[in-house]
């Protein structure tokens, strides 16, 4: 990877649907060269996919939260299977540090979050933080 590849990645992170023609004019390379570079990054696994960034508030999910799991009350495989049944969970991370896992989620309101918490209490010990503000940082 060189500086042009890094520049292409930054552009695609800003807008994964950006046209190759637009990217080629910004990085000052031909369209076939840019297309080839993107293909190579996909094949090598540097680009792992093109994703949609969902605005959960627009869908009525007004509360963003993180659950920091310190202990689970069952086998990890069972826990991982059961949390997939929670529609309010979007991401799950196994981490180092005080917590063992962190779950990112969104719910419609506080009552919905409370329902999630009550279900999770049977499965794990955890601390929940509600998101007050989100800011996306550029790599």
From TrEMBL:
Record has Transcription as a keyword: yes
Native source organism of the sequence: Staphylococcus delphini
Protein name: AsnC family transcriptional regulator
A GO CC term attached to the entry: cytosol
Domain HTH asnC-type per the UniProt entry, residue ranges: 1-62
Residue runs in coiled coils: none
One Pfam family hit: AsnC_trans_reg
UniProt keyword annotations, A-Z: DNA-binding, Transcription, Transcription regulation
A Gene Ontology biological process term: response to amino acid
